[in-house]
Write a structure and sequence with these properties.
mainly alpha, single chain, 150 residues, 0% strand
Length: 150
Amino acid sequence: MAENKDGQEKSETASQKKLDEGRDKGQVAKSTDVTTASVILLGGLTVLIYGAYSVNNIKGFMGYMLNNSSSLQITDQNIFRYYGDLMFFLATILLPIMGIIYVIILASEISQVGLKLSLKKFGEPETYTKVFKLGAGLKRVFFSINSLFE
């Protein structure tokens, strides 16, 4: 059984009203392992299936760039066109994979707790405090003198 604030076990189960209030606040029981496993398995399968198409596109793009590198005129006027072409090429390769993985994440989360959007959790002041503490922790881990030497 769960414990109350005094550390004693609760003698009664939660009422339906309390369960509904908790769900409205976004407090639901779910396993992150289900989401992680589904992303690894189904995302890996997606990359396996889509990988040959991606590799062929990359080979074609790199072949074109290497074969035509001597004739490419990079100037202030056309650099943005080349950059736009590169971004479009990368988007055509990466966005389908990212979109499928996003759908896998949504499906695994919805299959566990159902579809219920709750924005109350983001409006609580404790959430902002947690974010600031996380930022300070990340700063300590990645940007401290000790981590620099390690």
